[in-house]
Amino acid sequence: MMRNNPNDDRVVFFDVDDTLLDTSTFAETARKAAIELMVDNGLPLDKDEAYGVLKTIIRQKGSNYGKHFNILTEVVLGHEDPIDTLIYLKSQGYRLGVISNGITIKQWEKLVRLNVYSFFDEVITSEEVGAKKPDKLIYDVALRKMNGDPEKSIMIGNKFKEDALGAVNAGMSAILVNSDVTEEDRAYIRKEQLDITIIENIGDVNTIL
């Protein structure tokens, strides 16, 4: 049974682009054409979702790996859906918000398209605040709006500087998912003992929180 206590000061914030929703596009026409054919022939994802899954596979396996589409067809029915993670976090008593660098109406449109808008109590954007991640101000505004305790709140995103360092500098912890974090970034996290966890898939959040 879900617990949603409005007085709970534990908050989980999400980035939208490339975290909840993969908004990057593919450069190669051949891959796009192949995805379109697969969707037209029964792949049970829409084209944008399929592009996102394929991009994740390419990032994990490397561009020279020869079986990206084999993996795509194998994992598609078990595709990590952010809704599962959102339901899990709600069941654990967390309240959910969004912190995003973007235009407010555009970010809401994305959440509606993903059918996840109802999970979030607040959507805080750089347009609204007048400051972009990693500026501490946007995190402070988000925490104030959600009545969140920074020491008990978490930012989940894909960008090391904007999402992870920004959150840590605001007193929060962070989880990086689908991130192109470098070895230099990893070394910096270890050296400074930052409260940043790196995971491969958004579904891994369920094993951490």
Describe what this molecule looks like in 3D:
The chain has 209 residues and is of the alpha/beta class. The chain is built from nine helices and six strands. The protein has helices spanning 29-40, 47-61, 68-75, 82-91, 104-113, 126-129, 136-146, 160-169, 183-192, and strands spanning 11-14, 95-100, 122-125, 154-157, 173-177, 196-199. A six-stranded parallel β-sheet has the order 3-2-1-4-5-6, sandwiched between helices. The longest helix has 15 residues, at 47-61. The two termini are 17 Å apart. The relative contact order is 0.17. The model has no long low-confidence stretch (mean pLDDT 84).
Keywords:
about 210 residues; about 15% strand; alpha/beta; 9 helices; six-stranded parallel beta sheet
Biggest β-sheet description: 6 strands, parallel
Protein structure class: alpha/beta
| Low-pLDDT regions | none
Q: State the order of secondary-structure elements, H for helix, E for strand.
A: EHHHHEHEHHEHEHE
Total number of strands? 6
Task: Write a brief structural summary.
The protein has 209 residues and is of the alpha/beta class.
Would you spell out the secondary-structure blueprint of this structure?
Elements: E1 11-14, H1 29-40, H2 47-61, H3 68-75, H4 82-91, E2 95-100, H5 104-113, E3 122-125, H6 126-129, H7 136-146, E4 154-157, H8 160-169, E5 173-177, H9 183-192, E6 196-199
Parallel strand pairs: 1-2, 1-4, 2-3, 4-5, 5-6
